[in-house]
Specification:
By secondary structure, the protein is of the alpha+beta class. It is 37% helix and 24% strand. Strands 1-2-5-4-3 form a five-stranded mixed sheet. Helix 1 crosses helix 2. It is globular, with a radius of gyration of 13 Å. Pfam families: RsfS (PF02410).
Length: 119
């Protein structure tokens, strides 16, 4: 099984919105073969809390334009990790230090990466 076209569309839109707010180290994995609950994990880093919030807001705005609403959101305010669950995709916005510590990309490195078409 692979990620749906809709999941890939949402992932790329979210990645572009995050990149517009200077999110770093954007990477997405097709986790559909490993997890039944979602198709894609999108990872992004931010250097501080205001930037994390700006990235979150930009992603929410863009995906809402595409008809996708957040099912669940965790870790806002003073958190250093924001998780946004859209069903088809799960977005992880992490402070750069948490990203280095938890290394989610290492955890999911056996899953295929998705071309985010950022260039």
């Amino acid at each position: 099984m692979t990620a749906t076209d809709r999941a890939i569309e949402l992932t790329r839109a979210a990645a572009h919105a995050a990149a517009d707010k200077q999110a770093a180290d954007l990477i997405a994995f097709d986790v559909s073969d490993q997890l039944a609950i979602t198709d894609v994990f999108l990872l992004a880093s931010a250097s501080n809390q205001p930037q994390m919030n700006a990235v979150k807001d930009a992603i929410e705005e863009k995906l809402l334009e595409l008809g996708a609403k957040t099912i669940r959101r965790e870790g806002q305010r003073e958190s250093r990790w924001i998780l946004m669950d859209y069903g088809d995709i799960v977005v992880h916005i992490q402070h750069a230090e948490e990203r280095a510590f938890y290394t989610l990309e290492r955890l999911w490195s056996d899953c295929p990466a998705i071309d985010l078409q950022l260039s």
